[in-house]
Amino acid sequence: MCSVHDTVEFEKRGIPATMILTSVFTNAAVHQFRARGLEGHPFIELPHPISNLTPAKMREVTLRYVDQIVRHLTT
Q1: Which of 19, 24, 64, 75 is most buried, judged by most C-beta within 10 A?
Q2: Can you give the chain as a three-state secondary structure string?
């Protein structure tokens, strides 16, 4: 899961980072964050699946998470 690796690398350099994933990848992310020394690091979990959403529906889903993303990057 490259997103975990990238998030960890940013955080090690002092750059706030988070990742966005769908619910089926939650366990993998939790285990990979733990293995890379960032157990409990926050991430944004979208419902699964999203690949079948129209652009308008994806925008609607995404907008529900903007505040959460901002909190992750600013705290």
Answers
A1: 19
A2: CHHHHHHHHHHHCCCCCCCEEEHHHHHHHHHHHHHCCCCCCCCEEECCCCCCCCHHHHHHHHHCCHHHHHHHHHC
